[in-house]
Structures are given as structure tokens and as C-alpha cells.
């Protein structure tokens, strides 16, 4: 099983790489930070994981094209998990998992533009699920609530934001990276072979939480 993970050197991406390797996958990761990339590759080498990687800014088309050429060569033109349709098609089966957000499912104050981008990913997963099913390729999106990562820490340090968000979250806490990674990897396994076109929220119940009234005693 071969996999490409973008942004794999930290946070949720890092946890996904670790989860995939625990299932025996050969992983190629890319990250915009050379420092974090080299640090993560060194850590995984010490653990005996089969992880390779390179620096890439996936917002740059030339860098994306170079990345796909590199990954194609690295995996002999066959990729089972993640993002490139031609490589997945060559494998005969594959799974794409888009990292979305609850902001693409429900309204988040001040997050209109961010929500639009994540909502687009959710719709893309639906379209690709239908268009590429004939090639044995599934596509799904995973939409987390706030997760304990370095990127999210400034928000968690903001007392009123944290209280407001977690007050609407039935489980009452932020998520852990491995709680997202375990779902992502499950969606890549044969056990999930009949799941496609879905947006699955990993959110502690926030997106299903309706109106709740607690009368004063």
C-alpha cells in the first residue's frame, strides 16, 4: 500500500503518516517547511518507518507537478492513497481523503471564505466519487472540529473563543490529531471499500448539537 500525504510533517498530517505506517504503508510526505520535513523524516527513520519526502508548496502548480513526477517515480507509477487520479488509476484501486473542516458544514462566525473553500472540497469529494468509481477510486472528506495542533493553539489560548466553541461541543473538548488520523486511515482500508462521496465530521458532536435550554434551579 502506497500513500502520499501533503502537509505531513506536523499536526494532523503527521498523525496520519504515523497511522498509515502502522498499517504497513509506504508513505511519501511533502511539507512547505524544510525544517519540519527533515525533523519528521529523521524521527520516522529512527522508528523504522518507510517514509520518504520532499519540500513542496502545494499552492504552486509547478511545484505540484514536480511533486507528482517525483511520487510517480518513487512508487513506480502506482499510488493507492490520496490525491493524484492518474497514479491511482494505474494502481487499479485507490482512496482520496480530503482534509476539510466543520466550517464547510456549518456556519462559523467570521469564517466565510474559509468555509467556502472547505465546502468546495466536500462537493469535490462527491463529484469525484461518482466520476472515478469506474476506475476503482473512492473519494471522501474528513471534517474536524478544532484539533490540538500548533496551528490551532492560538485559538485554544483565546479564552472566550475556546469557551464558546467547546460550550457548543457535546464532548466538551478539542480533538487530538490521532482521533482524526484513525478515521482517515480507516477510509483508505479495504474495510471502507463501500464508503465513497461522504463528508464525515470528527467534531465531538458539534455539528449535530441543536438548541439546548437549561432552566435555572
Please tell me the total number of domains: 2
Overall mean confidence score, pLDDT: 91
Overall 3D shape: globular
Assigned CATH class of the largest domain:
Alpha Beta
**For the report, how would you describe the main beta sheet?**
3 strands, parallel
Low-confidence stretches: none
Q: What radius of gyration results from the CA coordinates?
A: 18 Å
Structural class: alpha/beta
CATH level 4 superfamily of the largest domain: NAD(P)-binding Rossmann-like Domain
Number of helices: 8
| CATH architecture grouping of the largest domain | 3-Layer(aba) Sandwich
Order of helices and strands: EHEHEHHEHEHHHE
CATH fold topology of the largest domain? Rossmann fold
Helix content: 40-55%
What proportion of the residues form beta strands (DSSP E)? 15-25%
What is the number of E strands? 6
> How far apart lie the N and C ends?
58 Å
Strand order of the largest sheet: 1-2-3
Question: What's the helix and strand layout?
Answer:
Elements: E1 2-6, H1 11-22, E2 26-31, H2 34-47, E3 51-55, H3 61-74, H4 85-91, E4 94-99, H5 112-131, E5 137-144, H6 153-156, H7 159-167, H8 177-188, E6 199-202
Parallel strand pairs: 1-2, 2-3, 4-5, 5-6
